[in-house]
Amino acid sequence: MGGKYRVTGNAYPRMRPPKRRGRFVAVLVAAVVVLGLFGWGAVQLFHVFGGDGGKSTARAAPSRPSCSPSASPVASKPLALPQPAHVTMNVLNATTRGGLAKTTADQLAARGFKVAKFGNAPDPYNAKVAQSALIISGPGGEAAAREAGTQVVGSTVTIDPKRKGSTVDVLIGNAFAKLATPTQAAEARVTAANPPAPKQSCAPQD
């Protein structure tokens, strides 16, 4: 070949296309995504065959009563009831029957009780006592109130924490017929002096 330029040497240059780095990066990202999908699928299969359905839920054990077999309720201490001569009471008629307060007060006085006064019950109780009698006293007269309650079958004793002194109010109710017999009063006195033991309560144990 003639001309100004000549090719010298025994090696010919090779013409190569330019490197395409964008395609290489795309292939690498696709490979990473595929591997991630395979890993996620493997984890899901593990949960499915493990039997928890992909969820792990902690179940609390059922609570059991914390009652010890050897534990027993503590019996209440016997209540020392006073003699009738040491019980001062007011006999009040809470019914519509006239003269009932005086008649009952005379009978209770004959049994040795001290009757301070008798008459009609005040408005909050007048004609509103359904049982045979309602015995009311303060904390200082609880024993006297329970002794008075032995004289009327079916009576109810109520302790008013705000009340002072030991005087007892005996409110005769609509169900009242007559005072208890001596035998009934003696039996009621045993029950009143020995209140039942409180029931044992079992608290749930976590």
Q: Proportion of β residues?
A: 15-25%
Shape category: rod-shaped
How many helices does DSSP assign? 4
Number of strands: 7
Largest sheet: 5 strands, mixed
**Side-by-side strand order of the widest sheet:** 3-2-6-4-5
Give the SSE string. Answer: HEEHEEHEEHE
Give unreliable regions as ranges. Answer: 53-58, 67-75
CATH architecture of the domain at 84-191: 2-Layer Sandwich
Organism: Actinacidiphila reveromycinica
Keywords: Membrane, Transmembrane, Transmembrane helix
Pfam families: LytR_C
Protein name: LytR/CpsA/Psr regulator C-terminal domain-containing protein
Folded structure, characterized:
The chain has 206 residues and is of the alpha/beta class. The protein has a domain at 84-191: Alpha-Beta Plaits (2-Layer Sandwich), CATH 3.30.70.2390. The protein is 30% helix and 15% strand. It contains four helices and seven strands, in the order H-E-E-H-E-E-H-E-E-H-E. It has helices at residues 21-50, 100-110, 142-149, 182-193; strands at 64-65, 88-93, 114-120, 133-137, 156-159, 168-172, 204-205. The strands form two sheets. It has a five-stranded mixed β-sheet, covered by helices on one side. Helix 2 (100-110) links the parallel strand 2 (88-93) and strand 3 (114-120). The chain is rod-shaped and about 120 Å long. Residues 53-58 and 67-75 have low confidence and may be disordered.
List the helices and strands and how they pair.
Blueprint: H1 21-50, E1 64-65, E2 88-93, H2 100-110, E3 114-120, E4 133-137, H3 142-149, E5 156-159, E6 168-172, H4 182-193, E7 204-205
Parallel strand pairs: 2-3, 2-6, 4-5
Antiparallel strand pairs: 1-7, 4-6
